[in-house]
Design brief:
This protein is an alpha/beta fold. It contains 13 helices and twelve strands. The protein folds into two domains: 13-246, Aspartate Aminotransferase, domain 2; 249-375, Aspartate Aminotransferase, domain 1. The protein has helices at 13-22, 31-44, 55-65, 82-89, 112-115, 135-144, 199-206, 212-216, 236-246, 249-272, 299-311, 339-347, 359-375; strands at 48-52, 73-77, 94-98, 120-126, 148-152, 160-161, 164-165, 172-176, 189-193, 293-295, 317-318, 348-350. It binds pyridoxal-5'-phosphate. One of its GO terms (molecular function) is dTDP-4-amino-4,6-dideoxygalactose transaminase activity.
Length: 376
């Protein structure tokens, strides 16, 4: 049986967890948390990174930091995970869903201006499969209309747009270390702050609305309740696990890219014969090999292919069902039809991609997909 995903352990996770446990300090914001945060600050070239218990939590922090109030409008793609929207719904925002691009599932920047009203507060972009949205155009629109930009960079570790790391371009960004992502700690995330105006408050919100961090740095002589907040910081056990993964980022990425490229090579002829579409990486963007997907020509064909592979012990899975048509949101949706989103919801299929995917297993996946399309 070839699974869709298999979380990879580098070998040092339990060693570092043991170190954290033996240090006697296993609550949050300890040695491993600081090491991981410093790593991201350096890698992304940003002033502040705060580990969180999930990307969902980091997105919720973004919504609090932006002071989203009931009635504020937030624009985001409909082709995304529920957390992108929930974080803002929880603050009472009205979500304005945008369509995707035709060449990849990212938000279609050319449709944004039409969605902006005087209530719009922010644009949330999602770098689908770790491939950058068209950030120059998006930042320009945001600056013109004085809007904030949040990057949902859940899938976008170690990926770049015109040489800039994803997560360092918008005002705020959120990454995920859920076990389905390139680098994982079971559950986990990081909030990235690129705008000085949010730095001080981010730490307060992170520490339950207190100025505890400033107190321990000796910046204030007592600490107390100064703002809203919650318990967004992970324990040292999670941070220790994450550190073992981060130490191996380059190794993990090299292997994932190799697997991604092998899929792309192996399936190329199906694209040549117009039977499927393969992912396209725009010129200014890098590929971080978060995901390999193909686009079938219809929902029926995709369903048949999933079944065909399943019968051969291969797990391939579809992805997002559009949020604007979800049971939760459908009655609230009053916008236009989002054709590109519908198309990705119906036809996108993700293939097994994980560090320990064996060469012969991948060959088998490719062989079976080719066989399916030869028969049909
Ligand atoms: C995985 C993912 C999330 C949620 O991440 P968690 O760490 O599980 O909260 C949010 N947005 C996108 C686009 C994701 O892929």
């Amino acid at each position: 049986m070839i699974p869709f995903n298999k979380p990879y352990l580098t070998g040092n996770e339990t060693k570092y967890i043991e170190e954290a446990v033996n240090s006697g300090k296993i609550s949050g914001n300890g040695m491993f948390t600081k090491k991981c945060q410093a790593y991201f600050e350096k890698k992304l070239g940003v002033k502040k990174a705060l580990l969180t218990t999930s990307c969902t939590d980091a997105l919720e922090m973004c919504a609090i930091l932006l002071n989203i109030q009931p009635g504020d409008e937030v624009i985001m793609p409909s082709y995304t995970f529920v957390s992108t929207a929930n974080a803002f719904i929880l603050r009472g925002a009205k979500i304005i869903f945008a369509d995707s691009r035709k060449d990849n599932p990212n938000i279609d920047e050319s449709k944004l201006e039409d969605l902006i009203t005087n209530k719009t507060k922010a644009i949330v972009v999602v770098h689908y499969a770790g491939v950058a949205c068209e950030m120059d155009a998006i930042m320009k629109i945001a600056n013109t209309h004085k809007l904030y930009v949040v990057e949902d960079a859940a899938q976008a570790i170690d990926s770049y747009y015109k040489g800039k790391p994803l997560g360092s371009i918008g005002h705020l960004a959120a990454f995920s270390f859920h076990e389905t992502k390139n680098i994982q700690s079971g559950e986990g995330g990081v909030l990235v702050i690129n705008d000085d105006e949010f730095i001080e408050r981010s730490e307060i919100i992170w520490e339950k609305g207190t100025n505890r961090s400033a107190f321990f740095r000796g910046e204030v002589d007592k600490y107390g309740w100064v703002d809203v907040g919650s318990s967004f910081l992970p324990s040292e056990i999670i941070s220790a696990f994450l550190w073992a993964q981060l130490e191996n980022l380059d190794k993990i990425q090299a292997k994932r890219k190799q697997i991604w490229n092998a899929y792309n090579e192996g399936l190329k002829k199906l694209e040549k014969s117009n039977q499927v579409k393969l992912p396209t990486i725009p010129e200014n963007c890098t590929n971080n090999a978060h995901m390999y997907y193909l686009l079938c020509s219809s929902l029926q064909e995709r369903t048949a292919l999933i079944r065909f592979l399943k019968e051969r012990d291969i797990t391939a899975v579809f992805h997002y069902l559009s949020l604007h048509k979800s049971p939760f949101f459908n009655d609230m949706y009053e916008g236009k039809e989002l054709r590109a989103v519908e198309n990705y919801s119906d036809t996108l299929l993700r293939l097994p991609l994980y560090y320990e995917l064996e060469k012969e297993d991948q060959v088998l996946v490719i062989k079976n997909i080719l066989e399916f399309f030869n028969k049909n």
